[in-house]
Amino acid sequence: MKLLVIGGTIFVGHHIVEAALRAGHEVTLFNRGQSNPDAFPEVEKLIGDRNSDLSALEGRSWDAVIDTSGYIPKTVKRLAELLADRVEHYTFISSISVYKEFMKPGMDENGPLLELEDPDIEDVWNYYGEMKVLSERHLDAIMPGRALHLRSGLIAGPRDPMDRFTYWATRVQRGGKVLAPGRPQDPIQIIDVRDLAAWTIAMVEAKHSGAFNVVGPDYPLTFERLLNECQSVTRSDAEFEWVNSDFLMNKKVIPWDEMPLWNPCQGETANMIYYLAQSNQKALDHGLRIRPLADTIRDVLAWDATRPADQIRSAGLAAKKEGRLLTEWLANKEQG
Ligand SMILES: NC(=O)c1ccc[n+]([C@@H]2O[C@H](COP(=O)([O-])OP(=O)(O)OC[C@H]3O[C@@H](n4cnc5c(N)ncnc54)[C@H](OP(=O)(O)O)[C@@H]3O)[C@@H](O)[C@H]2O)c1
User: Fold this and answer.
1) This prediction's pTM
2) Per-residue pLDDT reduced to its tens digit, 202-261
3) Ligand 1 pocket, Cβ-based, cut-off 6 angstroms
4) Does 147 have pLDDT greater than 60?
5) How many other CB atoms are found less than 10 A from the CB of residue 26?
6) b/e per residue, 280-298, with b = 16+ CB within 10 A?
7) Which atom of ligand 1 is nearest to the CA of 164?
8) Ligand 1 mutation target, pool 51, 69, 128, most atoms within 8 A of CB
């Protein structure tokens, strides 16, 4: 197939391009040529800006497009309008953040969606999920029956610039007393980017449409099991100290970014309680295959070891702050 990838040079897109090439497809990249411009020297590259200059796409056609970098609904719409007669199929990398609430585990693709109050909003930080919903809707309207929406949760793997999963693998590897947030039995989901990428290509080849939750693994995973797996892969002497969410909230620890994968289940964020506990049954029924978690942990650590030690990581608790919080927590515990 001739595939157009909008983006394709950082993480999710990079792995999708690798999977497409591995499957023997002909790939064209469209991006600004700013991020990782030396990636894929063998592949055709069209330079443009999806928000302002699509001219490089004019007069061309492909079997399918995979859009990994769509965040702003009106620019997704503009791109789809241009491509509607030039591609047969449109894959949009969306997110499980499209759902309105996460009050029960095992929610499928029919869960209620967020609504963007003003279609012109471009504030991705505050309206990420709402903007993905409207983008999906534009695609369904412009290419009915030809748009595939892949709603991922936390994506992990080599090249991940977000570091949320990488934090846990490296933190456990470092060993010692590890601040583990919330409760050991809290649900967690992660999908290996390479499983996501391979399955995306298979779904494009079959020209499936509609929405799919693309989360993993294929069994209920808990925070405790994730940390235990990290420990068994790294054979570290890590000891997990489970610190309750009230304490961390009182100390103003920032969920998700400063404390990756931690979703405090109270107060304003109570509707996030099952954020990482969505149903992936539909994707599994359509052939999604999930590799063992230990493989993801091992490969993330091997990749992380190639990065400069002094490179600032995007997520995770600073070692000093972790030590300070643990000292206070243990002192409180002793006092009962
Ligand atoms: N990470 C997660 O856990 C997670 C979870 C759920 C969903 N997602 C979704 O996964 C996707 C993330 O993919 P990624 O960033 O890893 O993809 P990627 O395709 O590997 O990287 C982003 C690409 O977009 C290009 N780009 C950025 N701005 C552009 C513009 N204005 N015009 C043209 N190209 C542009 C970048 O190249 P240039 O800079 O050179 O233009 C780069 O090639 C997003 O859609 C996100 O919502 C991620």
Assistant:
1) 0.96
2) 999 999 999 999 999 999 999 999 999 999 999 999 999 999 999 999 999 999 889 999
3) 7-14, 31-35, 49-51, 68-69, 93, 95, 152, 154-155, 162
4) yes
5) 14
6) bebbbeeebebbebeebbe
7) 3
8) 69
| pLDDT computed for residue 269 by the predictor | 59
Radius of gyration of the chain (CA): 21
**Ligand 1 geometric centre to CA of 206 (Å):** 24
267 pLDDT above the threshold of 80:
no
CATH of the domain at 262: 3.90.25
Q: d(Cα 171, Cα 158) in Å, to the nearest integer?
A: 16
Cα(266)–Cα(147) distance, integer angstroms: 36
- Report the alpha-carbon distance of residue 331 to residue 314 in Å, rounded: 30
Pair (132, 171) in one structural domain: no
Please check whether residues 177 and 150 belong to one and the same domain.
no
Please report, rounded to a whole number, the percentage of residues in the chain having pLDDT higher than 90.
Answer: 91
Range of the domain at 320: 164-188+218-276+291-334
284 in a structural domain: no
